[in-house]
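USER:
I would value a second opinion on how I read folds in token form. Give me a protein, with the fold worked out from its sequence. Write it directly below this note and I will take it from there.

ASSISTANT:
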Amino acid sequence: MSEILFETKNKPIGSFPYIKFTNRNLSSIAHYHEEMELVYAQTGNLSAFSENKKITINEGSFCIFMPGEIHGFTLVRDSNGYVIKINLNSYVENINFEKIRLKNNIISPEHSLYNNLKNIIEAIQNEYEEKAPGYEFAIRAHKNCIISNIIRNMEFEIIDKEKNIRLLNTVNKFLETNYSQKIKLEEIASECHMSKFYFSHEFKKISNTTFIQYLNDFRLEKAIIFLNSTNFSMTDIALQCGFGSLRSFNRCFLKKYNISPLRYRKTFI
């Protein structure tokens, strides 16, 4: 698979999974990674999408994203989710996980796998928090149970999404370099060797959003970094992130996060 973007942090270390039991107000634009990701809605419902479908993760339910599966989360205030990412590259069984897509990403309390999976996650949480001798071995064993349970008990299909991943990869690399500049649809379409009409159609199909909305979300994520790590004024952040004006920045930020950037800084930083 081509270079991983956006998930260079928050990755498993070898065969030990990435674990985070506190993810408040989970939000991210369309992305993908090499790992299988398990998300549990602890409090509140989580809003997500996977490639061309919208997903609601109701409180108390699980959601599984397979390696290479393009997905993201839409901000829902006052929600919290568990995230576990599992590296599947070290396994010798001949299973190409990147080409597996679950027919239903959600494991609700009514699912036959639910109680078993919930017990495994609770065991991982106890081991992770107590850190008794040998806890890493115990967590790896529980992690393997998650994988085998999913493969054996969930319906899936084999697909090939390499073309989609290449397109998203090209877009992300271009935006990472040019997000602070004015970007025309014709420019990004040309970068992807497509007409602007064909690019618009293909991009919306794989990311579940328009390119303009994706670009705004990309810039807003950069703005969050500036808000969290600098004392720049709102105007400076707006311009640094490619918004044409402070008014435009405020409007987009408020629409996505239901809070103004100034109030966000005062409230959360």
In short: Residues 135-153 form the longest helix (19 residues). The CA atoms of residues 128 and 135 lie 7 Å apart. The chain has two domains: 18-158, 162-268. Residues 18-158 form a domain with the Jelly Rolls fold (CATH 2.60.120.280).
